[in-house]
Design a protein that fits this description.
The protein is mostly helical. The protein is built from ten helices and no strands.
């Protein structure tokens, strides 16, 4: 018997069950990515990055889900909010040369199957070490510069 979204949410909230959240991601990632692709005019890579950020935010804020609407509705609202904050997000990456980033795309992250697996793995990372999650987000976002992540995110300064 397949668990409902409500059952999975209860497992995530009550037990901290990361596998249950992984199942929610699996169920909802295609519709979320589809919505974001429409919003970013079919830029698949950007839509995937925004979808990833959507699920990270959903995981961090899962306890704020009140159940007044369907989980998918709540998730779409997060996705839309992530989309509308997109210009602000780009400003956080000050000092990173966009042309250089495009030239240094890692072939491992351009394979759709591998990218899907990496997104699932990222969704299952614990939130306890924010810097580690940001480094993974940077890697998934093809920030494959030769500089260490600490210089990109200005950690330790």
């Amino acid at each position: 018997m397949e668990l409902t979204d409500a059952d999975l949410l209860a497992r995530v909230i009550v037990d901290g069950d990361q596998h249950a959240f992984g199942e929610l991601v699996r169920r909802h990632q295609s519709p979320v990515r589809g919505l974001l692709r429409q919003l970013v005019r079919a830029d698949v890579e950007l839509a995937d990055d925004l979808a990833q950020e959507t699920f990270i935010r959903a995981y961090k804020n899962i306890r704020s889900f009140r159940g007044e609407a369907k989980f998918s509705t709540w998730l779409y609202r997060i996705a839309y909010n992530v989309f509308t904050r997109m210009p602000a997000k780009r400003k956080e990456l000050v000092g990173i040369d966009e042309e250089q980033l495009q030239a240094e795309v890692d072939p491992q992250t351009t394979d759709p199957g591998l990218r899907h697996d990496l997104m699932n793995a990222l969704a299952n990372l614990p939130v306890t070490r924010a810097h580690g999650r940001h480094a993974c987000v940077a890697r998934m976002g093809c920030l494959t510069t030769k500089r260490p992540a600490s210089s990109i995110f200005r950690w330790g300064r």
